[in-house]
Amino acid sequence: MSDSYSDKNLQDEVSELETKSVTAARLFDIRRIIGGLFVIYGVIVSIAGFVASDDEIDKAQGVNINLWTGVGMLVLGVFFLAWLKLRPAAPPTPPLDSADGEK
Fold this sequence. Notes:
Blueprint: H1 2-27, H2 30-50, H3 54-59, H4 65-86, H5 98-102
Helix pairs in contact: 2-4
Keywords: Membrane, Transmembrane, Transmembrane helix
Transmembrane segments: 33-53, 65-84
């Protein structure tokens, strides 16, 4: 009788750990990290492009390179975050126990 109680407790603990693992995997999805960094850096570089002086623009042959690079980074970052939202990471399937089939 005590064996079935401990097995149930063990199964509950395993189930809880699997839930935490899935949550951690979704939290640290690489698309979230890359998208977030590109959005942050894109905002910073875009601001640098908006406040660029005429001398800085002349150095880049008349192209406001900071503004264009910042906008490109923002677009890429939003793409990664949208991808994460539209196609979230699937939770891993639990392994099948061979011991259950032998009983």
